[in-house]
Design goal:
heterotrimer, A alpha/beta, B alpha/beta, C alpha/beta, A: Urease, subunit C, domain 1, TIM Barrel, 5-stranded parallel beta sheet, 18 strands, B: alpha/beta, Rossmann fold, binds zinc ion
């Protein structure tokens, strides 16, 4: 029996047209009331929100929880604790586990583990193809029935265009969005970072930006052919942003996401052969970073998703060539995004939408947000807090972040999932 | 006589060396060339020091050169050759390097197929590290001996026009030489089929040409690179015969070059592919001078790195 | 000038007399045992050897120069990168009587290194040693054959030979390193 009255707090939920200084009562798992001044009820546990901002809990369309199969990197418990620390109340976990989430049994396992161990809500994403091999379709209908909210071969690109067309045709019939990881495997050809001046100077094999653009263009065309909803994950190039912009202008059911590292860093972060700057798609040039920020600002890119990809030290403390792709993202996403707000590159409203209502829209799910009767999925942020991110103190099992030691302004201080406090700073 | 300008902790990249640093290294190298000319070619300078040659790639030439250099300085030289395959079978670079720490090396000479490996190793152990070639990144000791060979022959390193011909994309020798030559104000043009010229090379401030015949007449030095067939799972040109026809150096093409042009090659030479045999052996070819300077330069580097403590 | 940490041991004029005396001592010895070939040790041994050669009416360009850096036993104790200077012997070492020339004889380690360096270049018939100053405190069994002046100083004191050629002034000083 929970009954918390959060008072003296600024409450913002742009999707519900809410921005007021007032009070919000959590009763059990739900929001009971919101207003400038609520009547005090017996049993109210007072929570002073002075100087803080109460937001709907964030939704991340793109995380790797690594369970089952890679629990040495992360598991559902540690990954969702990191999510809670980042203000996320729902995370969608990618299918590249071991075994791959390409059949209902794996989906059931993930949901079962989540019920007992997860700090936040876990929504699985199923595979497009069996074993992410790009050879034949996974049991997509069965995956949806088991609880998958989308399908994706994330980490791999379905290179066979005919198979991709089949997948999108088939998914359309189940009204499932297809989330794509867009790197032309042939053009990438063993590349490990963005191809350009920095890769040339470092002597590393590059991944041209066109490797992403080609696949995004193909999949947009297949979306036109099939009518299937296409969500382009971690857009990293100016070209891909422009292609999505054009697709939207044509009214195609295409959405896109930006990862915090792509709107924060460029390929220069790879210098010194820092494997914590190695991810796929790779960090690009300044032009691309600016295009991604512009895409978020004008709505071309719908949401911010972290691509939280934990890796053990043995996967990262190796030659750059050999290092695993990917970095932690959940705990730094809010602070990195808020930098754009502070720099006046993105409005606070758009920023919050990109973490709350927009991801649900991408999945075709109804957004409730902050309103009486809605689940009490909330996070409280301190927009003035100065803090330093330390991977040593991360809830994640892994430490692979290029943002270790970064000084930030704006921090998540409390997170509630269905009225239950899952994180306090 | 120049006094020592700085302390150089590691030799990883030519980008880390200023013109003064390079001149200081050459000044020290001259002293070691004198040692190389003595009946007793050995000095006790590094007695009790341990130099480990850690080679993850086969390179008899570079390894031997470092080995002779170390032994002439009386260091204990240990050669460890690892095939990259044994490393990928489970022993990581970190494991390998940590195991070496027990031998307390003073200098670690590293050859590795991955770019940045030498730099990564500096974060893993205390020894001074010399990069003896890391993937397609750099090969600074080769560049130093190339610069020295050019200086010996042309009496200057400034105002020259150097053409580097071949597989620029995969050449650590090209990158290191470009950086070194530019320190002295020489002009570099990279020459090859466009499929072997990496995107972004312009950022080095070099000229680019896809037509060897058209530019050869303007060059003071022609540096031919080895075509590294093993680095390509798909040849970036139709075949070696066609490559040789457009980018190989033969006597006929050499007619168009300046009369005092000199030819260099980091070796090992693919005779008949990038360079015709009669060109490789001609008097204007400095290929053997390069080998000789290699030992002296490496003696200087081993000595200078061992000469200071952290 | 601070008198408390710097004492003049010899002024220019006294230094000149000392050179004259050393030159005549060498010549006396040569009458008995045959001519010496002068080899100066970097840095100040070289101008000293050149001056002595001039005083003995010989070509100062014909002296040998010796750098002992590659023969030192304390390489890593330096904080700067070592500068190796030129070793050049314009005569054959084999069979010659070499007179090694240095400024100050202290622990003897420099001379030990010089002996190794010299014998790596050939097989001299004999090697003798000349120093301007012997300050004692030897760590090796090495003595000079010709010595300008023996002095007794404290361990924390430095004997500094300054010469016109290298320092712009002829003077020998004792400097207290702690002051
Ligand atoms: Zn991905």
């Amino acid at each position: 029996m929970t009954q918390i009255l959060i008072h003296n707090v600024r409450i913002i939920d742009p999707a519900n047209g809410l921005d007021l200084l007032g009070e919000l009562r959590i009763k059990d798992s739900k929001i009971e009331a919101i207003g400038e001044k609520l009547d005090k009820l017996p049993g109210d546990e007072a929570f002073d929100g002075k100087g803080r901002v109460l937001l709907p809990g964030f939704v991340d369309l793109h995380v790797h929880l690594r369970e089952p199969g890679f629990e040495h990197k992360e598991d559902i418990q540690s990954g969702t604790m990191a999510a809670a620390a980042g203000g996320f109340t729902t995370v969608c976990c990618m299918a590249n586990t071991h075994p791959v989430n390409d059949e209902a049994a794996v989906t059931h396992y993930i949901l079962e583990q989540s019920r007992s161990k997860a700090a936040v809500k876990v929504w699985p994403i199923g595979a497009i193809t069996v074993g992410l091999k790009g050879e034949r379709l996974a049991n997509i209908g069965e995956l949806q029935e088991a609880g998958c909210v989308a399908i994706s071969d994330d980490g791999m690109t379905v290179m066979d265009s005919q198979l991709m067309r089949l997948a999108m045709d088939y998914a359309k019939g189940f009204d499932l969005p297809v989330i794509t990881h867009s790197v032309d495997a042939n053009l990438c050809h063993g590349g490990t970072m963005n191809e350009g001046e920095v890769s040339c100077q470092m002597g590393l094999k590059g991944i041209p930006r066109e490797a992403e653009d080609i696949i995004v263009a193909r999949d947009i065309l297949l979306s036109r052919l099939t009518g299937c909803r296409l969500h382009v994950a971690h857009v990293s190039t100016a070209g891909a942003v422009e292609l999505i912009r054009q697709a939207k202008a044509q009214g195609l059911p295409v959405t896109g996401e930006a990862a915090p590292h792509h709107f924060t860093l460029t390929d220069e972060a790879c210098q010194e052969y820092d494997t914590n700057a190695k991810m796929c798609p790779p960090l690009r040039t300044c032009t691309d970073r600016e295009a991604v920020i512009q895409g978020l600002a004008d709505g071309t890119l719908d949401c911010i998703a972290t691509d939280h990809a934990p890796h053990a030290i043995v996967d990262k403390e190796v030659e750059f060539d050999q290092a695993a792709f990917g970095i932690l993202g959940l705990e730094t996403a809010f602070a990195l995004g808020y930098r754009l707000v502070l720099d006046e590159r993105l409005s606070l409203e758009k920023f919050i939408l990109a973490l709350t209502a927009k991801p649900l829209e991408v999945l075709g799910k109804t957004y409730s947000g902050l309103k009486p009767g809605a689940p009490a999925d909330l996070c409280l942020v301190d927009l003035d807090a100065q803090w330093v991110y330390r991977t040593a103190q991360s809830s994640s099992k892994s430490r692979n972040s290029p943002f270790d030691g970064w000084q930030f302004v704006g921090r998540v201080v409390h997170t509630w999932v269905e009225g239950r406090q899952v994180y306090a700073v | 006589m120049k006094e020592t300008p700085v302390r150089i902790p590691h030799i990883l990249s030519m980008a880390d060396l200023s013109r003064e640093d390079i001149e200081f290294i050459f000044q020290t190298t001259d002293r070691f060339r004198e040692v190389g000319g003595r009946p007793i070619k050995k000095v006790p300078a590094l007695r009790g020091k341990t130099v480990i040659n850690l080679f993850f790639e086969n390179s008899t030439r570079t390894r031997t050169s470092f080995e002779i250099a170390g032994k002439r300085l009386s260091a204990d030289v240990i050669n460890i050759t690892k095939s990259s395959s044994s490393v990928s079978k489970g022993e990581s670079l970190l494991d390998t390097v940590k195991n070496l720490e027990a031998m307390a090396p003073d200098v670690l000479v590293v050859r590795h197929p991955a770019a940045g490996a030498a730099q990564t190793i500096t974060r893993m152990l205390k020894a001074r590290v010399i990069n003896a070639g890391d993937g397609a990144h750099e090969h600074p000791t080769q560049a130093l001996l190339d610069l020295l060979t050019i200086r010996d022959h042309k009496k200057t390193l400034s105002g020259l026009h150097v053409g580097i011909v071949g597989d620029i994309a995969h050449s650590r020798v090209a990158r290191s030489n470009i950086l070194g030559l530019q320190r002295f104000g020489s002009k570099v043009t990279v020459i090859g089929p466009k499929s072997l010229i990496p995107l972004g090379i312009e950022a080095f401030g070099v000229g680019v040409s896809y037509d060897f015949k058209a530019v050869i007449g303007d060059l003071d030095i022609i540096m031919m690179l080895r075509i590294q067939g093993e680095r390509h799972d798909r040849l970036p040109f139709p075949n070696l015969r066609e490559y040789s026809r457009f980018f190989g150096l033969n006597l006929q093409l050499l007619q168009k070059a300046k009369s005092d042009v000199v030819i260099m090659h980091p070796g090992p030479v693919n005779r008949g592919v990038e360079i015709a045999p009669e060109v490789a052996d001609a008097p204007y070819s400095l290929i053997l001078n390069q080998v000789k300077n290699g030992v002296a330069v490496r003696m200087a580097l081993l000595y200078l790195l061992s000469g200071t403590e952290e | 000038m601070n008198a408390s940490n710097k004492n003049i041991l010899l002024e220019a004029i006294e230094l000149k007399a000392l050179f004259d005396r050393l030159a005549s001592e060498i010549k006396e010895r040569e009458v008995l045992s045959g001519p010496f070939q002068l080899v100066g040790i970097h840095t100040r041994g070289i101008p000293i050897a050149q001056r002595l050669a001039k005083l003995m009416n010989r070509d100062p360009d014909q002296i040998g120069t010796l750098d002992i850096n590659l023969y030192r036993d304390d390489l890593s104790q330096a904080s700067e990168m070592p500068v190796v200077k030129e070793t050049e012997i314009p005569f054959s070492i084999d069979g010659s009587r070499v007179l090694l020339v240095d400024d100050v004889l202290y622990t003897g380690r420099t001379i030990r290194a010089a002996l190794d360096a010299l014998t790596d270049l050939g097989r001299p018939k004999s090697i003798a040693l000349l120093v301007l100053i012997d300050r004692g405190e030897r760590e090796l069994p090495i003595q000079s054959d010709f010595c300008g002046k023996k002095v007794s100083v404290q361990p924390q004191e430095n004997v500094k030979v300054r010469l016109q050629e290298t320092d712009g002034v002829d003077r020998i000083e004792v400097i207290d390193r702690q002051a």
